[in-house]
Amino acid sequence: MFPFSDASLQHRTLPYVTMALISLSVLVFLYEMTLGGSGTLTGSSSLDLDIFFLKWGFIADELTAEQPFRNLRTGIGLVSIETPVHTVFTIFSSMFIHGGFMHLAGNMMFLWVFGDNIEDRLGHLRYLVFYLIAGSAATLSQWVIDTSSQTPLIGASGAISGVLGAYLVIFPYNRIKALIIFYLITVVEMRAIWLLGAWFIWQLIQGSMSLGLANSVNVAFFAHVGGFVAGMAMASVYKLVKGEQVIPGRGGSSRGGGGNPWDYWHQAGRGRH
Q: What's the predicted TM-score (pTM) here?
């Protein structure tokens, strides 16, 4: 699923925090390319890039043991991988590191489509705090599932999952346009409550199937789940403080009128994926 537009909502202010978060992630990725070369685009790695991930990605076992990894044994001897800051800081630094171009592009597309309207609704500073808290909750959710993992956790998807959770609470009936690639290449336009709800259920299913398979699964599904739940919780509190219904009626936040929540569906093309 690749959302590319929220069809019935326009933000009122320039989403410069969202733009800054995207820009920072892109800049970090460009730096990664100086370490891993063109292979970084396809997710290939190099020793220098691996060291960067180990230093600045979040490693669950470091937090559990309250002791950072210091050295990595390689073919050229011991190499220092000790993080120059406290392990807790990597909860935040890991949000801006990505393992390949598609990892970066997918996350930034989600952030751009959904983040600008959450920033518009919460305000710039509250949105930034919200984003960092959601990302932290996501990382710690994955840590709870596998406290002994020695694999660096990287990527913005946990924080962005929080944005999706908030979007579901604040704009449940807004229409989202998304590209679906599953045997058929299809463009759908449906309510956020259905699209994001289905996405969340899929993360739960995939996460449940990944339990006990930590060494063979490279997606932190429970970070997505934890971030999404945290985003929903914070958005619900925000609406309660504002005196709004947590779950508005059909004529509430959607700005899109009534009708079937699936609303529009059309086939854009055919082909195998």
A: 0.85
pLDDT tens-digit map of 176-233 = 988 887 777 888 888 999 999 999 999 999 988 878 765 556 788 999 999 999 999 9
DSSP for residue 85: S
- Whether residue 271 lies inside any domain: the answer is no
User: Is 27 in contact with 96 (CB distance < 8 Å)?
Assistant: no
Q: How many helices (H) and strands (E) does the chain have?
A: 9, 6
CA 41 to chain centre: 19
CA 16, distance to chain mean position in Å, is 18
Q: Please say whether the beta carbons of 190 and 176 come within 8 A.
A: yes
- Please give the structure tokens belonging to residue 23: 């820009």
Q: Which of 60, 61, 32, 63 is nearest to 48 (CA)?
A: 32
Domain assignment present for 119:
yes
- The helix (run of H) or strand (run of E) holding residue 108 is helix 101-122
Return the amino acid letter for 183.
Y
Q: Is residue 185 part of a domain?
A: yes
Backbone φ, ψ for residue 198 (5° rounding): -65, -40
- Strand 184-191 with 2-6, pairing: unpaired
**The domain containing residue 90 runs over which residues?**
2-266
Give the tokens for residue 80.
């220092």
**Rounded-to-integer distance, Cα 219 and Cα 225, Å:** 12
Q: Where residue 123 sits, what CATH number does that domain have? A: 1.20.1540.10
